[in-house]
Amino acid sequence: MPGKTPNSNGKEPVENGGYPGSKDIEMKDDASSIKGKGKKGGKDTDEEMTVVVPMSKKQSSAPPSNDADGDVNMEDTEKEGEAKVDPVAQSVSDIKSNFALLDRAVALFDARFTLRALRSVSSIRQRLTPDILAQVIAETFPASSTSGDAAKHLLTALDRGNTTLGRQSSTESESETEAKASAKNGNKKEAKDIIPEIDIFLGILVQVYLYDSKQFERGAEFSSYLSDRIRSLNRRTLDSLSAKVYFYYSLFCESIAPLPPSPQSPIIALRPTLLAALRTAVLRKDIDIQSSVIVLLLRNYLLMSHINQADLLVSHTQFPENAANNQVARFLYYLGRIRAIQLRYTEAHEHLTAATRKAPSSMCALGFSQTATKLLLVVELLMGDIPDRATFRVASMEQALHPYFLLVQAVRVGNLEDFETTIADHADTFRRDGTYTLILRLRQNVIKTGIRMMSLSYSRISLRDICIRLHLGSEESAEYIVAKAIRDGVIEATLDREHGFMKSKETGDVYATREPTEAFHDRIRACLALHDESVKAMRFPMNQHRLELKNAQEAREREREMANDIQEGDLDEDDLGGDFDGI
């Protein structure tokens, strides 16, 4: 259709500074000139000039093929214009493009470039193969470099130990003749050593490939070598890379049989390595390694059900305030799980709520969001609250939270029979999520909820009816449960033991109390805390404030010298370079 443009879906920039959907600008002068050229007898028309462009030999010798109707077939010309991209060469170039970022990170001592290189691992990992990694290693490490041992370890982990180092890539082969000519003339350049950051980055790619190919034992052995090499290097520019190495090292040990919580699991043997790394990181103030190792140790203790040791670790260590947002979210989740097991539900609810808010919104972190939300729902039920129904309507979590939705329905109504049926039907799911033992504690909450619903519905109800509705064993157990609910403040009622009934008190207006104000205050406090943490999490260039202070100091010195010159009479208005008419 004329006057319409195809939908660009936001990928192409909008011209003329407009926005999608804005009106097009009418080009009246151009349109009239085009129409005027088409008419021979039109008024005020310029003389037409025809430019003849000679055809090249290639075009004249190979004309485009015509179809049956005489039209030109454009498919062949489009195929000739498209350059075929080799996926292997593209993967190699994508990996090598991160080396420049690592060089800049070392030169400027700025960890942002290292983090940018690590973010590209997720897009590269789908294309990783042993041949691609071996080609990158062979083209990166020269044969005469001092880091040849590191390259051999990388190739051995990939079963490519026979690969020769110092191979020339396709882009470097063009300048090979120039290098030889310069060598003959005496301009021979020494082979440049590879910085350790590139070596460790390639080691992380090898770890990723071994983990995706489920070679856990080989990956654990290679990760042990990589962690030893990191400790021997002792470079602050390796902090972000070292944290990732320890992360995959822990994953390898968790996946090797016997699996946790077996006492013979390899993750127990990993603890001394992680604790030594934590001590060194605290002394050197390495925020990345410190936050990552604390999270890995908490995960290690929880997998082995060592809750007391995890609590001791939290009490004797201080999680860094400037840690990455992802590590903070993981730490808050594990801390919330520890507090929930310790029956400290209020603290667990605060930590888990903060963890779900800090969780990334991308689909890559969907599993973490689902796991944290499941535990948060159980903690809310244990606190006596009913979760919001909108939580279960999120498209990305609706299917995963369906068993918990049935559980919430049973607790909300106070139906003990439906509660036990839900647990029996979805016991495997709850065990896999690690919430089964916490859900078993909800039986008393279901009974209390049922009693509270009956106290709101009836002004007086007999203990026998309570026993029948809640499916209790006897009236004595119903009497004890009602008395405990009155003592805990769950319901406002009185118990008549002689006549065997429960009499409810009249409920007052909740808005006349301080509860709405306290809830509003809690929400404001959560928003302010989120704002403060967001400001703290912002990253800035290293030592930028020192440069600003230096420039400001130089400017003050220049102003002081200029003021002294003016007082002494050495400068006048012309020397200052301006007309002071407005003063």
TrEMBL record:
Region feature (Disordered): 1-86, 162-186, 553-583
Domain PCI: from-to ranges: 329-509
GO molecular function: enzyme regulator activity
One GO location term (cellular component): proteasome regulatory particle, lid subcomplex
Keywords, sorted A to Z: Proteasome
Comp. bias (Acidic residues): 68-79, 567-583
A Gene Ontology biological process term: regulation of protein catabolic process
UniProt biased composition (Polar residues): 1-10
Xref: Pfam families: PCI (PF01399), Rpn3_C (PF08375), TPR_PSMD3_N (PF25573)
Protein name, per record: Proteasome regulatory subunit C-terminal-domain-containing protein
Organism field: Coniella lustricola
